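Subject: sequence -> structure tokens, single chain

Hey, anyone have a minute? Need the predicted structure for the following. Not urgent.
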Amino acid sequence: MRGLSKALALLLLVVMIAGASYFAGFGTYWFISQFQAPPTPTVSEPQQFKVFWEVWDIVEREFYGELPTFQKMTYSSIRGMLESLGDPNTVFIEPQMHVLEKTDFKGSFEGIGAVVAMEDGHLFVVFPMEGQPAVKAGIKAGDEVIKVDDKEIAGLSLVEAVLLIRGPRGTKVRLTILREGEPEPLIFEVIRDKIETPTVAWELLEEGIGYVRISLLGERTKAELIEALQELEREGATALILDLRNNPGGTLTASIEVASQFLKEGIVLYERDSEGHEQAFRVQRGGLATEIPLVVLVNEGSASASEIVAGAIQDHGRGVLVGERTFGKGFVQHAHELSDGSGLHVTVAIWLTPNRREIGEKGLLPDIVVPLTKEDIASGRDPQLDRALEYLKTGR
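Reply:
Had a minute. Here:
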């Protein structure tokens, strides 16, 4: 299945990062190259924060236990302040997580090319990516990383461990590994490289039906989708299934670019701010798949930017949605990079489908509702994909 193994690697990497925090970037109106500058404090702020500093001084003076670092107390205070907004999508991201967040949307990073996960404080290789430095060095799935260079993994978070392993292309990292069946730890020296993380995978299914899965909407997605559509056309695809299940979102730009591959003209979405002002985002003409029969697969894991794509296709009557109700995250967020390298996402507006449905209210209800049960997953069945195939074959 062309490209699917690479897409799975990306999906697992996203899941890995989500385990360390929530997927901090998902659904963000992303400005990777043009973060907004932090605001300048006003003269009135010291008086407004008088009680805050009174408490801070008393705690520093009188608390019996060991005090956390100034940075930790500051970050905790910021989180408390944001929590008072009642908006779970306005979030603060610490510097280390912010580094990973930015690379995810770019679709590449520099490291060894291995998907890792933390379990009970132990760092395991889920699998090394095919053709990447980890594989070439001999690292295998199931290996436990206990040291990176001279740094012990014990006591580190997943993000801290990942950042130790990642590094500039061409540099060397030494991993000390425990492997089942080996009496002593093994040491591997790996030369880091640029690792590409594709967001689109595709294959030709039965009876000329093309299948395209998009796992994330990032900077690379448009080019990868065009490649997929061109290849499927060369292979004789006469219908398409676009799989957006478990796609957590991505950038607004990518969502417009993807939707435009399937729509001839019109509105992709509206953006409405707190004062009710609306901005329309239109289809970019020249899409490659504007007439071919189309089914879109969605589920409760389809969120944010992927809901923009699905909602536009549904409202234009361009294709049929099959699966389960989507997540319902239709919020526009501005991303700010702060002075210490941390990040702040602030909700500034909402997204509406072309028919002005609020994505964030209830999500999108598919035209054909098909549940996917745990039993289906355990047995390897996919009734949602089966129903999409049936629809494209029979029109029912």
